Amino acid sequence: ALPVLLSRCPRLLLDADALNTLSAEDGLTQALRARAARSQVTVLTPHPLEAARLLGSDVAAVQADRLLAARTLAQRQRSMVLLKGSGSVIAFPDGDLVINPTGNGLLATGGTGDVLAGWTGGFWAQLAATHGDAASARQALAAAAWLHGHAADLQAACSPGSLALRAGELT
């Protein structure tokens, strides 16, 4: 199914199992590069373990230089990358980087990354009609990452001592 999506979808956001599949099948990287050559925008939203798999590395190496890991992944996959984690990094194939200033450890729970991917896709769909795919993807990534982190910052301020944030609490 993923090869079909890579060949047909004008806009594509890949998270979770799609990233695991991408890291396991070498030919899919070529499909991502072909998408970029056709001006089809792809967004990847890995956490550090998924990024390490895509880079053929390990989590320690990704965490040691998150900027380099995100930039390398974006350039290698010719995709926009949102490397989740403390100080989420948004990297673009042209080498540009954005570091999200919001967020905290409350987001380190299952399902919160799914919310981030959903918000990114939703913002991207809303903006694409008026801003074009690449520009709208850049805006969507920055907005979703900021809002996602800000929701966690608000939760931390309202409930000091909280250890985790459930995905359903991200509002």
Protein architecture, described:
With 171 residues, this protein is an alpha/beta fold. Helix content is 57%, strand content 11%. The protein contains eight helices and five strands. A five-stranded mixed sheet has the order 1-2-3-4-5, with helices on both faces. A hairpin with a 5-residue loop joins strand 4 and strand 5 (97-99). The radius of gyration is 15 Å and the shape is globular.
β-strand amount: 5-15%
**Percent range for helical residues?**
55-70%
Low-confidence region ranges: none
On the 0-100 scale, what is the average pLDDT? 94
Strand order of the largest sheet: 1-2-3-4-5
Total strands: the figure is 5
Radius of gyration: 15 Å
Separate helix tally: 8
Q: Using the alpha-carbon principal axes, give the shape.
A: globular
Q: From the helix content, strand content and strand pairing, which structural class follows? A: alpha/beta
Q: Which sequence of SSEs, written as H and E, runs from N to C?
A: HEHHEHHHEEEHH
Largest pleated sheet: 5 strands, mixed
In whole angstroms, the N-to-C terminal distance is: 32 Å
